[in-house]
Specification:
By secondary structure, the protein is α/β, with parallel strands linked by helices. It has 10 helices and 10 strands. Strands 5-6-2-7-1-8-9-10 form an 8-stranded mixed sheet, sandwiched between helices. Helix 6 packs parallel to helix 7.
Length: 292
């Protein structure tokens, strides 16, 4: 079917707009050194809790960190991180809220009623994500942690195609259905030629069992980062749990050790961060040598 001149001009305008949007995004994201997605195709496995605690953990290590809640229709990251700060608007730009040392942007921060359902089709979700990325002044970040939407369709696809992620942490719980959905999300990531950094098993313990995440990593040829136990400590919402519980902190120490190793292997660790850590490790080694 031949296109009319008007249709050709409309198509050309659309292509130019898409190109300009991509250029603007690239310019915005250039100041973000490493982007990590926390993802599973299944909802309810604790992606948001893991994403928030990972972001807060990284900030506590001295990194500059942003947290993007990419789950547009059920956004919860801002509520989980707490702190009460909200974004400001200045000259049409979003100035992210900063809670516990993490810059946070979430759709929930722009809702008048948090209980109101966001009923949007794919193109509207795509536009909302693009606006968050284009209009937000993230500044210079060592890491952006992205709390991914569940599923394997429009919303996660938009994030993966727009953000050029450095890698994903796959979240599962020990149950068979969660493991199946985790496999689906891992296969989606691989089909889009993005790196799966490794697997974390959440809600480990007597209630849901254990061991499924480790087996999943083995079957899929991935690194297993460790377990996160289901603990009463998560009932305390006065601060992110990783800051107030030494056992949770130890779990994230282990997870970060695995993530850091994978990012270094993929050459996705910021150069100055890697250099600073190498210097710290060298100084620690010299101190141990002096003690001996």
């Amino acid at each position: 079917m031949n296109m009319s001149e008007e249709q050709r001009q409309q198509r050309l305008t659309q292509i130019k707009q898409q190109w300009e949007t991509k250029r603007t995004l690239n310019r915005q994201l250039r100041r973000i050194k490493t982007k990590i997605g926390v993802y599973s195709a299944k909802g309810g496995v604790g992606k948001t809790t893991v994403a928030v605690n990972l972001a807060v953990y990284l900030a506590a290590q001295g990194f500059s960190v942003g947290l993007l809640d990419a789950d547009i229709d059920t956004p919860n990251a801002a509520k989980v991180i707490g702190g009460g700060d909200v974004p400001n608007m200045a000259d049409g730009r979003i100035q992210p809220a900063e809670n516990w040392g993490v810059k946070v942007v979430s759709m929930s921060q722009f809702q008048e009623n948090e209980e109101e359902a966001v009923i949007w089709r794919g193109p509207m979700i795509h536009n909302a994500l693009n606006q968050f990325l284009q209009l937000t002044d993230w500044g210079d970040l060592d890491f952006m942690v992205v709390d991914m939407p569940p599923g394997t369709s429009d919303a996660p696809l938009t994030v993966m195609q727009t953000l050029e992620m450095d890698g994903f942490v796959s979240i599962t719980t020990p149950q068979a259905l969660a493991l199946l959905d985790a496999k689906r999300s891992i296969n989606m990531i691989k089909k889009l030629n993005v790196e799966v950094l490794g697997v974390v098993e959440n809600y480990t313990g007597d209630v849901f069992g254990s061991g499924g995440g480790k087996q999943l990593a083995k079957e899929m040829g991935l690194t297993y980062f460790g377990d996160i136990a289901l603990r009463p400590a998560y009932r305390d919402d006065s601060q992110p749990t990783v800051l107030g519980n030494k056992d949770v902190r130890a779990e994230y120490d282990n997870i970060w050790k695995g993530i850091k190793a994978r990012l270094t292997e993929l050459e996705a660790m910021p150069d100055q961060v890697a250099a600073a850590q190498a210097a710290a490790a060298e100084a620690e080694g010299e101190a141990e040598g002096a003690e001996k």
